[in-house]
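User: Last request for today: this protein with alpha-methylisocitric acid, please.
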Amino acid sequence: MKQNVAQKLISSHLVDGQMEPGAEIALKIDQTLTQDATGTMVMLEFEAMGVSRVQTELSAQYVDHNLIQADYRNPDDHLFLRSACRKFGLWYSRPGNGVSHPLHMERFGAPGKTLVGSDSHTPAAGSLGMLALGAGGLEVALAMAGNPLHLKMPLVMGVRLTGKLPAWVSAKDVILEMLRRYDVDGGVGKIIEYYGPGLECLTAMDRHVIANMGTELGATTTVFPSDTAVRRFLRRQGRAEDWVELLADEGAAYDLHDEINLSELEPLIATPSSPGNVVPVREVAGNDIYQAYIGSSANPGLRDFAVPALVVDGRQVHDRVSFDVNPTSRQILENLAQLGLLAKLIHAGARVHQAGCNGCIGMGQAPATGRISLRTVPRNFPGRSGTPEDAVYLCSPETAVAAAITGKITDPRELDIPYPRFEEPDDIILNREMLVPPEPESHHIELQKGPNIKPLPQFQAMPDTIAGKVLLAVGDDVSTDEIMPAGAKVLPYRSNIPEISKFVFAPIDGRYYERAMANREQGHFVVAGENYGQGSSREHAALAPRYLGLRAVIAKSFARIHWQNLVNFGILPLTFVIPGDYERIVENDELALPSICDAIRQSKRVELVNRTKGETYPVAHTLSDRQVEMVLVGGQINLFRKRQH
Ligand code: MIC
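Assistant: Here's the final one, the structure of the complex with alpha-methylisocitric acid:
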């Protein structure tokens, strides 16, 4: 049978299940990626599993999120992660080396391999012809322990690219065009596979930009073929031997289909506060800005800094504008310096930060109240920048730098400057030194746990009947940034569940924590609209609410990774069979799921009783038998332990 690239990657790693859309499949995982904000929990989970060394071909831990060292917490976590890498056999990327996704692509990415990462932007490695999936930390810990990854077989959507990108339009505009067409949930249950003649004008790093933000479409992942552009990339990184060709078979079919003519694209921008609110830049041009920000995993390449450097050459940015430059990696910083490009940025007024995620995750560089910030980052969910009333727009480096100069949102085609096309030199500086290889002998190594690292909470099995109050009823597209915020204040507690749980739902309801604590023993419900839990893979958005007594979420629909995280921690995700029933439940209603253990074992449909209103609603679950058992025993860790005994 003729196969597309996604099907080739899946069939070559399939260890269980049938490749039928919607069916549960299990895949062998070759590599894992963890970053510090999720990695501390992964290492605690791996420790709890009692496995002595990672069983993958390669596992790498990056320190890129929690870089501000305002007190002992983040540096303690860095040392803990270093000790865990030494003990368990992972590569350790030192703080300041840069953002996990581009680093992983440069140093370890290999066509034909599978990768799972505890970060939702892991699909960026699809740029190299890998099958790369974001997942909750537990999923990654299990993969590190040699277990396959379970997921529902997605549909494969082929997007044929034709034409050639015009001047001032770049890869970011391609993914913004996809978001304009499909919004933040249009990719749910799908792998997006790009192909066609238009690929010729996209380098491997350009493809990273598109694959990275496929996550914002809600897609399971994004894949590109491994062709000559990938070969060129790996050769430049000194890894020509890792290249293998991986192309779709001639005439291979796709479940769904679309086409983009790159020649017809124009500069696009996502307006506040959703990556799906995309309009042409010209429609919002003229508004004053406070900040222009370049960098992050969504525009990580050398060209993403080089083009702005060439645009500002001999110019000054507007005196109202904070022009923030967040280098993606130390290697890119070194190359910018070597090519004389860093000096151009600095002289023009850039504020140059260390290599890492920084403001993308609210670790510094928060914008002024209500003022416009133009960013090349992947997300603009409300308040994620660190400023509650923020106005963050997502755009290409070309659009960001144009606004930096004029002080207003500006269509970069209006700049009176020839478009500086940048060709990356073949001979770049490579920095491999900040990645520390695994120790060959490690049984004597101790884990170094500072006082901020608290043990994993233990959870009980599901009671026969779940009953409790609805503590929160929320609308559509609630992101994990709203459920479990990040930012400089909260992120340092990622390895301390009792502390971080104080911030659960804080952007939506400042009293949730108190109310949940008051009902903790009994447990409670959350009711939600469509696409509940979109965004990040942070399992803390399930783990911390579970710690506070959340037992079930009833939603119109769920985002994939968050749904899995709920199941992993024994929270029951249910959907309304009659969408209108969502309107009938309000905060503080008393709900019950009677005899729920038997009910979910026996049927995909169960009854939800609203004791306050005296009503009953049909609700449904899509758990596999394996997942039913997981929820009943109180989550993935309990199940793992049970199966070991
Ligand atoms: C994000 O961009 O939201 C993050 C921070 O990278 C997260 C991971 C996290 O919350 O630690 C993600 O995308 O998974």
